[in-house]
Design goal:
This protein is an all-alpha fold. It has eight helices and no strands. The chain has one domain (28-158). It is globular and about 55 Å long.
């Protein structure tokens, strides 16, 4: 006899769809951003790091000054986005990937926080105050972490204890 998804998971079909849809969208966004960086000849985070204006600015600008550190940052940025995005997209290792994605996007948020005292900078799209797309994506990932669905609709369902 087929089990009702609501009684086995505690989620309704609509909730499962919503959570899965959100996870897939965020996964696609991160995957796409990573692939664009990976396949853009000569892409580097140097300009982004040098222009940072947030609380991590001294650290980020220092990273851009060292060729070896910048190389590591570029590789981690490209492949971090690709791998985290792919895993979220397919629902594999979703819990740790959500945490890693929140950390990664927090760096983007803190590099260019939408605080009025910092004024305008070239790496933002629009006019924001405190809340921007990065903070919203972090919040969405937090919700997904609190209400996981990849054990139902992702590859994680084939692994126990996830």
């Amino acid at each position: 006899m087929k089990k009702n998804i609501e009684t086995t998971t505690g989620y309704s079909n609509g909730q499962i769809f919503s959570l899965t849809f959100l996870r897939v969208l965020i996964g696609w966004h991160l995957l796409y951003e990573g692939l664009v960086k990976l396949y853009t000849p000569g892409w580097t985070a140097k300009g982004y790091l040098l222009g940072s204006a947030g609380p991590l600015s001294p650290l980020l600008k220092g990273m851009a000054q060292s060729k070896s550190i910048l190389y590591i940052v570029d590789i981690m940025n490209e492949w971090g986005l690709v791998l985290i995005g792919l895993c979220l997209f397919i629902g594999l290792l979703s819990k740790p990937c959500k945490i890693l994605a929140m950390i990664l996007i927090s760096f983007y948020y803190l590099a260019y926080p939408p605080f009025a005292s910092l004024g305008f900078n070239a790496h933002v799209e629009g006019s924001y105050w405190i809340v921007n797309k990065n903070l919203i994506e972090i919040a969405a990932l937090f919700v997904l972490y609190q209400f996981p669905s990849s054990h139902i609709t992702g590859i994680d369902k084939y692994f126990k204890n996830n």
